[in-house]
Structure formats: C-alpha cells, structure tokens
Amino acid sequence: MQFVIEHLSKRFEQKEVLKDIDFTFQEGKIYGLLGRNGAGKTTLFNCLNRDLKADGGSFFLDEDGVRREVSAEDIGYVLSTPTVPEFLTGREFLKFFLDINEGSIQNLKPLDEYFDRMSIAPEDRDKLLKDYSHGMKNKMQMLINIIAQPKILLLDEPLTSLDVVVAEEMKQLLRSLKEGRVTIFSTHIMDLALDLCDEIVLLSHGELEVVEKSNLDSQEFKEKIIAALKEETYA
Amino acid sequence: MLKTLRLSFALKNTYRVNSILYSLKQIPLLGRLFPAALYQVRGLKIFANILSVLWEVLSVFLFKCIYFLTLVCGLGLLYQNAPPQLSFLHILLFLTLIGSYMNTSLFDPTRDKYYAMILLRMNARSYTLVNYGYALLKTVIGFLPFTLLFGLNRGVPLWLCLLLPFCVAGTKLTVAAYSLWDYEKSGYVRNENKLQKFAWLLTGIFLALAYIPPALGFVLPLAVYAALWLVWIPAGLVSLRRVLTFRYYREINQELLAQMFAQMDTVKEAVKTANEKTISADTSITSQKKGFEFLNELFIKRHRKILWKSTIRIASICAFLVCGILLLMIFLPESKAEINQMVMTWLPYFAFIMYLINRGTGFTKALFMNCDHSLLTYSFYKQPGFVLRLFQIRLREITKINAVPALVIGVGLCLILYASGGADNPLNYVVLLVSILAMSVFFSIHYLTIYYLLQPYTAGTEMKSGTYRIIMILTYVACYAMMNLRLPILVFGAACIAFCVLYSITACVLVYRFAPKTFRLRT
Question: Which of B281, B290, B382 faces A72 most closely, judged by CB atoms?
Fold first, then answer.
C-alpha cells in the first residue's frame, strides 16, 4: 500500500503555504515531518484530514496498483493538545467508539484489555474524562485512533507534553503499530524524529522533500537537516 | 513630558487604528475585499486614524452629554418639589462623589497602560502623571460646556457653573491622593473595576442621597451647596501635590496590570472550566443504550442541570402566570373582555416569548463545548451517516426539551381564551395550541440547523463565523419586530404553522445535503 499526494496546494490569500506537493509515502514506515515554525505542517495535516479544503490536487491510497479515495475512517489524526469528550468516562468513550464501529473493527477484545494495553490504571477507567490528566487524555486519544487501525496515522507533536515514562511507552507503541500503515509524525524535536522515524521529510518552501541519510553518521545527518531548513527564506 | 504624551498618544492610536482595521476585516463579504496586507495600506490607515481622532474628541464630550441628559437633568425633570437649580446641584454633587472613586482613570487597568509600562517599559511615573493630567484636562473641558448649558438653564449662577468642572476634578484628585496614601500605608492597590463591598454600599447610599431627598422636596440652600462644591478646589490642590510627589507608580501599576493580565490569560481557561462545571459528576448516571443513543443519553443526563432543569423552571413559571391570569378573571370579571381581546390578537407577541424561552442556543453551545469540540477531531465522528444520525437524535431531544414550556403556554392560552369568554370558532383553540408548538419546533430546528450548517467554533472554542452572528441578530430582530404585530389568531396562526412546516422541511433538506461537509471544526 502507498499513500500518494499529487499536486496538493493551499494558499491563504497571497501566501502559498503548500505549493504543488507531490509525494509518495510507503506502508510500514514512520515519517518524521520537520519544518520551521509556520512552514505549514498543521495545514498539511488539516488538508489531509479534510478539515481544510485544499485549493488543488488530490491524495489517494494505492493498493497493489488500484487507486482509491481516502475515506474518513482511513485516517487517524492525533492532535498535540488531546481532545476527549469531557462528559464521558474513559470506559464509556471506548464503548461508544466500539459500538458505532462494530462492523469495521477486527478481533474485538474486552474493554479492559484495551486499557491494559495503554496502561491506563483500573481506577481511572470509570472517571469522567474531564478529570483525566493531560497524559491520560493523550493516551485515550491515541487508543481511539489506533483501535480503528487506520491506514494513515497523522500525529501532530504528540509526545512533546508527556512525561518521560509515558513518552517512552508511546514511542514503543508507535513502533509496534507501524506495520501495515503509513505513520506521519510532525515534531520540532530533532532527536525524537531521528530516534523514532524511518524517514525524515522536510516541509520547506511549501514542498516535501526527503533528506537522504545515505552513509552519514547522526551528527552529520543532523547538520544536513539544519542546513536544509535554514535555506528557507521568508517568502 | 511632551515626549511622553506624544508617545502614549501614538501608541494608543496605533492599536486603535489596528483594531478598526481588524474589525473591518471581520465583516462577512466586505472583509474579503481587504487585502491580507491590510495593515500596510496607507489610505486605510489614514482613514482609520481620522476615525480614531474623531473618537478621542467625541469621547471627551459625548459621554458627558449623555450623562447630563439622563442622570443629572433627565431624572431631575421629574422633580417638581424642589427648585431646579438646587436639585441640579444636589444630584450632580452626589453623582460626582460616586464618580470620584468609580472613574479615577488612575486606578483603571487598561490595555494601553499595559502596553506602555509593562511591555514597552516606559517610565511609569511620567507616563502615569502625563496621562492622568490629560484625563483631568479632558474632565474639565468635557464638563464645562454642559455645566454652563444645563446649569445656566436651571438658574445656577454663572461663576458657579464655571467653577463646577474644577470641583469635579478636585474630587477625583482628592480620592486619588487618598488612595495613594492608603497604598503607602497598607500596600493595598485599588482597582476601580473590582470594587470592594464597602464601595458598593457607599454607591448605594450616595445614589439614594442623590435622588430621594430632592424628590421629597428636601434640598439645602444655595450657599451650602456652593460651599460643599467649592471645598473640593482647595482639597484638590493639596492632593495634587501628593499625586505629583508619589514615588511608587511603577509598583502600583505593576500590581494593577498584573491582576488584569492574569485575568485575560485565564478567560479562555475559565470558559472551559465553566462549561465543564455543567457536567454532572453523579456516578450513578449510566445508560443501557448503544452507539449514538448511548452518547446522547449520557449527554442529556449529565447536562440535566442546564437542559431539563431550566426548561422545567420556565414551564413552572409559565404555569404560574397562567394560573394568575385565570384567578384575575375570577376576581375581576370585568377584565375578561380585554383579556379575551388580547389573546385573540396578541399571538405574534408569542413569537418573541418563544424566542426568549427557547433553549436552542444553550443546547448547541453545550453540545459544542463539551462534546463536539473534542469528538470532531476524530475522523470516525465525521462520517456523513453518523453526522446525520446524531442530528436526528439531537433534533428529537431539543424538540422534547422545548416542547414542555410550549405545551404549558399553549394549553394555558387555550384555558385563558375559554375562561375569558371563548371564541366564536372552535378552530381558534386548535390553531392557538398548534402554532405555539410549531414555533417551539421552529426554534429547535433553527438553532440546530444553523449550528450544523455553519459550525461557528474553532478547536480553541473561539467563535469565528460572522455569518452565524448575523443570523443570530436577524433572528432576534425578526422576533422582536413580531411584537408590534396585532393579528387575529387564525390569520397569524395559520401563517405561522405554514412557515414553520416549510422552514423545518427546508432546514432538514439543507442539513442532509450539506452538514456532512460543513459540520467540522473551523480552522
């Protein structure tokens, strides 16, 4: 499976944020999306998630040469600030989600098994989500997004505000989930990107480009990325 | 000193101009005509600058004029028991005393002070003194034409009219000096927007003193008023020295403005927690349903306080009023004819009443803040089938909630009509009841539809749709205009039912057609 973006463009008035993006993401890889502040990472995610209407271009899934439209359930989008329905308990939210997606979720498990997998403590499962801590909300959001087994998982700065233990758990989780899907991970933290991601993609000048690691050691690779990002001029 | 004045003017002007330009850009349709580089365009800037200067000049006189027209003279006109010159001096004196601590300008945490002293680190003492001096000057200049105009008109001697503005400035200076002295002594910083209980009490007393004695015909002789006024001039002069020599302006402003900007940061947070507070923490609330019905039932049950409780309260008040009118007709049979006449022709009035008691806005707001705001970030929630399924469920719920008071009002009106002598045509009863219910359904659908079609909020729970606001205002204006309509039940009722049915059908069609696309978070 491949996730293909063709000629995607988006402008806000005169400012061309995404110009003619052409890129193919391969299944089974985690892509680290790096870019300067305001480079358009969130805009790109919003366009892919169809929260924002793109001005032109298309994106689709290519499964063994057969192209098909990306539907809403193909995409999981984890935002940097976790949002969960505050009036439900963790268990109720999960139950609601499983109820309405009954048909599409394979090998349904008991609710507690899902909680165990995210290491959400038993006493927290029946608390209202408004009383969850930031990290727990984040876990909950991640859980909902991965149960559906989306083909494309978009993560916008997901680990920055987590404590080290949870962040490590999440990293492990993302690694274990990467098979069978495209994971795109936007971050400002270079070390995180290098540690977790299989490919580093830069968003600069409104275009996506891969930074080849070839045979550079990690220090040289870092310098190469910084150099590439520095080229960004103020349009 | 001149430099400080010039700088603070330039600063205030800059952000005023930018706010004018920003609000121009927010106007739907018109806003699109403006370029993104709006803030660079010279012509627009000059235009906004002119507006800004006009506003500054206008603000010197406009508010004083309104103040004199309404509070000082307008209310004073009612008083026939006292000589006009004395009640004028009396009322103005006590209102001025209130103004001396409620409107100090020195203890008003404003945005321009924050920008100038905190962000740009201007010298606090000279900034404060220059601006305070300017504010006092505005007071004197702003008051002078009106004390002359209204004072002379009421027979106050010319010399007193000329001195009154300086006395007003004197009261302000005295209170300011006292507050500064109080700070030196106790470290307490006054904030005129956050008055203490004592100050409110004092305001109440002064208001009573201002308006009650002259109404009863009790006023003092002119010489006493003159003395009570003029004493503020020497008091002001003494205080001026203190204000000029005070040394802790930086500290005072730091504290005053820190309070304010801590508040501004927490406003968003406060909105969020206020919304979360509406969620019931009762752990016994559960639901046996599945899927969206499960979600909906939990939502309604956990928001009972803002949804059902308030609708039941409204319904009880309506029932109470109906009983009152029925009793009135029993004890005062001669009122029947008039009441009958009213019920027969006042149905349009109820469009506005139904507008007021409708829970639609509260419902959609709670829906967004506590539910959709988060769930809309999940792609599964946005699947067209699910959006529409949930729309149906919600429409059913809000209709139920609104139907309770509507039913009470409808049945109540029928009872009143019957008890007050009835109608020639029994169809009147049916139309009365049905049209009230139709209005209630209309408002339910109306709010939910525009919520689904325009979804005005962003992920940060900011309202971002001008169109949504305009529709809200138009709804209000239309309902308000209905109040002036006097039509027989059958005519208005039939038209109203037809309109509601048509509107509801159109609205549902629109939602089915467009909501899957429009029901998103704004970015």
Answer: B382
